[in-house]
Amino acid sequence: GNSVTQMEGPVTLSEEAFLTINCTYTATGYPSLFWYVQYPGEGLQLLLKATKADDKGSNKGFEATYRKETTSFHLEKGSVQVSDSAVYFCALSTNFGNEKLTFGTGTRLTIIP
Amino acid sequence: NAGVTQTPKFQVLKTGQSMTLQCAQDMNHNSMYWYRQDPGMGLRLIYYSASEGTTDKGEVPNGYNVSRLNKREFSLRLESAAPSQTSVYFCASLRAGELFFGEGSRLTVL
After folding, report:
1. pLDDT by residue (tens digit) across B16-73?
2. Which of A68, A108, B23, B44 has the greatest number of C-beta atoms within 10 Å?
3. Number of CB atoms found within 10 A of residue B66's CB
């Protein structure tokens, strides 16, 4: 079956540090890959996505590249801000149009001023 | 700008009580979902509905029932609550590969 493994947290960084949150996956076929973010007290919201190999998703300074050869979709940001403090979820879907997403366990990120 | 609305936001139940979590979306989406979020477990799919009048089991359906009342509404019912159902529940709807989530309902079963 499908599965997503992401870096365990919590992760604590200083403001302006470089961020990487690792995500690897196992899936049949060719999945679409997603990063969702959950700010305190809120539901999840889509941060970025990539639907085929070598695609790069980007949003709000975050990037992730779909690497089929390493089955990875690592999230990166060059300079984090306090407002980036949240829980980040990697997810995949193999049923485009009627998605049942498989989520990772989430990584809690805290940015210290 | 309502998006996905869930009620109630908080609920405390005793073991064996029943309750229904309500969810409504105003984006005219066909597919709707119920997830539960537990520490260290990520989100797990309970039930989903691909369209009005259809529902299917997800990863953890035991102890739950759902109703897709119309295109807007998708409710989740606990007939006899158990402590293992203490969790945060999220409703979501889907468009073009993107899930839109409600703010969550925190349920505690004593």
Report:
1. 999 999 999 999 999 999 999 998 788 999 999 999 989 999 999 999 999 998 999 9
2. B23
3. 24
A96/chain B closest Cα distance in angstroms: 7
Min Cα–Cα distance to chain A from B18, Å: 24
A100 with B45: Cβ contact below 8 A: yes
DSSP of B44-108, one letter per residue?
A: EEEEEESSTT--EE-S--TT-EEEE-SSSBEEEEESS--GGG-EEEEEEEEETTEEEE---EEEE
* Cα A97 from Cα B38, distance rounded (Å): 27
Q: How many residues does chain B have?
A: 110
- Top residue of A35, A48, A105 to mutate, by most chain B CBs within 10 Å, is A105
In the structure encoding, which two tokens stand for residue B8, read together? 């109630």
Whole-number Å distance between alpha carbons of B25 and B97:
16
Estimate to the nearest angstrom the gap between the alpha carbon of B16 and the chain centroid: 19
Q: Which residues contact A99 (CB under 8 A, 6 or more apart)?
A: A32, A93, B31, B94, B97, B99
Query: What does the alpha-carbon distance between residue A60 and residue A48 come to, in Å, rounded to a whole number?
Result: 9
- Give the Cα separation of B103 and A93 in Å (integer): 22
- Token couple for B58: 């997800």
